[in-house]
Design goal:
128 residues; Jelly Rolls; four-stranded antiparallel beta sheet
Length: 128
């Protein structure tokens, strides 16, 4: 983490932080980032992003800082954030995104309730 900006929230996460506790189901997504390719992602549930192998560059829509994650570094992102990820080296980089499994609600129609839900989901990150 020696290349991180002056304000950052990267920190190691213990391998088993919930030992002895009942755990909710987790969803893990494995991403392979090719060199010179940037991936954009809108976070749908609170998540932890962990770099595997090569160094990973990350930026967030509401942050003026960039982050460089070394292998094993973890950064937490909140629901509604938009992030960009890229391999920082000449080779591919691996990233895992871990979040609690959230069952999607069924949405009916395209009426005013649906429109208001979309407006609130857009404004929620701004209000923080």
């Amino acid at each position: 983490m020696h290349d991180a900006s002056s304000k950052f929230d990267c920190f190691p996460v213990p391998d088993d932080p919930c030992a002895g506790e009942i755990r909710s189901p987790k969803m893990v997504i494995h991403l392979s980032l090719e060199p010179r390719q940037t991936v954009s992602w809108r976070v749908t549930a609170r998540s932890e992003i962990r770099a595997q192998g090569s160094r990973v560059w990350m930026t967030r829509v509401f942050s003026p800082y960039d982050y460089w994650l070394q292998a094993g570094d973890v950064i937490r992102v909140t629901r509604g954030e938009r992030i960009w990820l890229s391999a920082d080296d000449d080779g591919p980089a691996e990233v895992t995104v871990t979040s609690e499994y959230v069952e999607r609600r069924r949405r009916y129609g395209f009426g005013p309730v649906r429109w208001l839900e979309r407006v609130f989901s857009f404004l929620a990150p701004i209000a923080r």
